[in-house]
């Protein structure tokens, strides 16, 4: 299949499914015109990257040069997603426009982001405290479901799921029995716990 450039702007957007080198059953596929079609193919792949996905899908942007230019077009990747067996996708890399000047420069992925985090200056001394601090950090970086699940678990209102097949389909369906808590057991902000620790309470 050849690349199809739009007449109005000379742009071609395509998707690629990453496969197994030399495999006839799970090959690398490119020139896919729609993300939905690429995801439908990718979900049948057998966990090539070992990161919980069936495989990865990438988006390629190409721009046609004007007539008479020494090259036909320039091209580079813009996005990379994980695709699981149920067809859910997760964006893991966003490539900036630096690819126009050579190799693409990419936004930090999860592992690279972790490496940039500083050591926690006032870490908790108990597991309960560490979990609550982790919940606060999760809330701060917009992992709201994880934050809520940790807080609910620490205060005994809901157990963390065991992440079996049913839990992956519907985590909200896994709930423990509610436990009566006292007002003084309610979650306290990190800044309040730090102040209380400094004041010796």
What key attributes describe this structure?
single chain; 201 residues; alpha+beta; 5-stranded antiparallel sheet; 5 strands; 27% helix; elongated
In summary, what is this structure?
The chain is α+β, with helices and mostly antiparallel strands and 201 residues long. It is 27% helix and 19% strand.
The span between the termini is: 70 Å
Low-confidence stretches: 98-105, 173-185
Portion in helices = 25-40%
Walk across the major sheet and give the strand order: 2-1-3-4-5
Rg is 24 Å
Q: Average pLDDT value?
A: 76
Count of alpha/pi helices: 6
- Oligomer state of the chains in this structure: single chain
The helix-strand sequence is EEHEEEHHHHH
Which class do the helix and strand fractions yield? alpha+beta
The description of the largest β-sheet is: 5 strands, antiparallel
Q: How many strand elements? A: 5
Inertia-based shape: elongated
List the helices and strands and how they pair.
Blueprint: E1 11-17, E2 29-32, H1 35-42, E3 55-64, E4 73-83, E5 89-94, H2 110-116, H3 127-140, H4 144-154, H5 165-169, H6 190-199
Antiparallel strand pairs: 1-2, 1-3, 3-4, 4-5
What would your notes on this structure say?
- There is one protein chain.
- This protein has helices spanning 35-42, 110-116, 127-140, 144-154, 165-169, 190-199; strands at residues 11-17, 29-32, 55-64, 73-83, 89-94.
- By secondary structure, it is of the alpha+beta class.
- It has a five-stranded antiparallel beta sheet with strand order 2-1-3-4-5, with helices on one face.
- The longest helix is centred in the middle third of the chain and has 14 residues, at 127-140.
- The termini are far apart.
